[in-house]
């Protein structure tokens, strides 16, 4: 569906985001006579709606067992924290998440995990003038930052890590592999780690266009997220199938997956 995954914003540094999945995306499609920038005549128009929830599906409060967690980026970090400190979670999918708190302390009852350190001198600039922060964070394996490593060995559920190997927000592949090593060193099962070449930070539902760069609210300036459009699009289709298969396996329910169709 290159018509959608190849979309680019009219204004730079914008990312297409669906804030409310209870309503569909409405995409207006125009067929024009000729090509930009020449004057064009409208030949046809249609509105395409992309649903995120099937008819009749509602969000309901859920408590374990049988609870699955899905988190991307900071949400992935929070999911790792939840499975490490909370009971009743049966499965967790982590998409390009950190294994240490970033930007602030993590509090749970009497425990506090400090944020992993960083060094602004490791910021780089791309040839297009964007900030690249992939090297900024310290390794949570370093002596002064070990206390920031989330205690994933306390988790009692299986994991699926989905990783973009061209993630420029932080070192997601390194984090996933270290979480795997940490779990196995404490006698836990080896988690499933799936890595996608040419894939950036935001692995979203299938056919969402790749966001190459946008404002990073923590950094306070536009940064690059990584990824190559075609490879990133393929990864999003596969990740959609992988996470459904994983949840069906560990949470029960009907077999099969919802196809990534428009």
Could you explain the architecture of this structure?
The chain has 262 residues and is α/β, with parallel strands linked by helices. The protein has a single domain, classed as Alpha/Beta hydrolase fold, catalytic domain (Rossmann fold, 3-Layer(aba) Sandwich). It has four helices and twelve strands, in the order αβββαββββββαβββα. A four-stranded parallel sheet has the order 3-4-9-10, sandwiched between helices. Strand 11 and strand 12 form a beta hairpin. The longest helix has 23 residues. It is globular, with a radius of gyration of 20 Å. The mean pLDDT is 92. Pfam families: BAAT_C. InterPro entries: AB_hydrolase_fold, BAAT_C, Thio_Ohase/BAAT_N. This is BAAT/Acyl-CoA thioester hydrolase C-terminal domain-containing protein.
Topology record:
Blueprint: H1 2-5, E1 25-33, E2 41-50, E3 67-72, H2 74-85, E4 89-95, E5 106-108, E6 111-113, E7 124-125, E8 131-132, E9 159-164, H3 172-185, E10 192-196, E11 213-216, E12 221-224, H4 229-251
Parallel strand pairs: 3-4, 4-9, 9-10
Antiparallel strand pairs: 1-2, 5-6, 7-8, 11-12
Protein name: BAAT/Acyl-CoA thioester hydrolase C-terminal domain-containing protein
GO biological process, one term: fatty acid metabolic process
Pfam family, one: BAAT_C
């Amino acid at each position: 569906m290159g018509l959608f995954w190849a979309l680019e914003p009219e204004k730079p540094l914008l990312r297409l985001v669906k804030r409310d999945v209870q309503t569909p995306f409405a995409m207006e499609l125009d067929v024009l006579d000729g090509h930009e920038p020449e004057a064009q005549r409208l030949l046809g128009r249609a509105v395409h709606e992309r649903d995120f929830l099937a008819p009749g599906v509602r969000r309901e409060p859920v408590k374990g067992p049988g609870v699955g967690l899905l988190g991307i980026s900071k949400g992935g970090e929070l999911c790792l924290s939840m499975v490490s400190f909370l009971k009743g979670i049966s499965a967790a999918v982590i998409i390009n998440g950190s294994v240490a708190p970033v930007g602030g302390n993590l509090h749970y009852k009497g425990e506090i995990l400090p944020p992993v350190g960083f060094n602004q001198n490791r910021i780089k600039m791309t040839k297009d003038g964007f900030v690249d922060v992939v090297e900024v964070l310290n390794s949570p394996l370093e002596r002064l930052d070990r206390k920031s490593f989330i205690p994933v060995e306390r988790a009692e559920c299986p994991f699926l890590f989905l990783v973009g190997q061209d993630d420029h927000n932080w070192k997601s592949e390194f984090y996933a592999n270290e979480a795997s090593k940490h779990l196995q060193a404490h006698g836990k099962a080896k988690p499933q780690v799936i890595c996608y070449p040419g894939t950036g930070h935001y692995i979203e539902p299938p056919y969402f266009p790749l966001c190459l760069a946008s404002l990073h609210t923590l950094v306070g300036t536009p940064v690059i997220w990584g990824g190559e459009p075609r490879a990133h699009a393929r990864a999003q289709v596969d990740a959609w199938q992988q996470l459904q298969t994983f949840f069906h396996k560990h949470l029960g329910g009907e077999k099969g997956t919802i196809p990534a169709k428009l």
